[in-house]
Design goal:
This protein is of the alpha+beta class. Strand 7 and strand 8 form a beta hairpin.
Length: 176
């Protein structure tokens, strides 16, 4: 049976509420205290992808002056590891990314001019890599936006109050 190990205890689900003003080294320590039921290299990459999304959420919430906690849920069910990051950072316009979010990740080149233009446009405060890193690690990847009534709204809507990113991967045979 697969588990997430967090602070020496085995769980099927781990929930974290992360305050946007929490020191990043404290967040890093908490995420690094997770042991996920994937091989060592994938464990490192998975935690890195999670941290990238948390960092994006923190930045968005600070920009939108939201003090709501960022919700991180990690769970294992039916041999699938699912990670969900929910923030109230106001969302973003998918079409402004330096690549097509629906394009297969192996065809996205982060060295293309579109990435450089994106970085310059955002004064090197955004690099366009967080979502790409997460998509490379998690084959099932879904972004939804919601409004203040918790209703799903389309990207670019003026009603967006937050973002939910849900991503999953099938666990290899064996493991904890």
């Amino acid at each position: 049976m697969r588990h997430i190990v967090f602070k020496g205890q085995k769980y099927k689900q781990v929930l974290m509420n992360i305050h946007p003003d929490a020191p990043f080294n404290k967040i890093l320590k908490e995420i690094n205290s997770l042991t996920l039921p994937v091989d060592y290299q994938n464990d490192e990459h998975t935690r890195y992808a999670i941290l990238e999304l948390i960092n994006n959420s923190i930045r968005a919430q600070k920009e939108n002056r939201s003090n709501e906690p960022i919700k991180l849920e990690i769970k294992i069910e039916n041999n699938i590891l699912t990670v969900t990051v929910t923030d109230s950072g106001g969302g973003f316009e998918i079409s402004e990314l330096p690549y097509d979010i629906n394009e297969p990740v192996e065809r996205i080149d982060p060295n293309k001019k579109s990435f450089q233009d994106y970085r310059e446009k955002n004064q090197y405060k955004r690099f366009g890599l967080g979502l790409l890193v997460a998509r490379k690690q998690f084959p099932q990847f879904e972004i939804t936006f919601y409004n203040n009534k918790n209703e799903t709204v389309p990207s670019g809507s003026t009603e967006i109050t937050g973002t939910v990113i849900k991503m999953s991967l099938e666990l290899p045979d064996g493991g904890t």
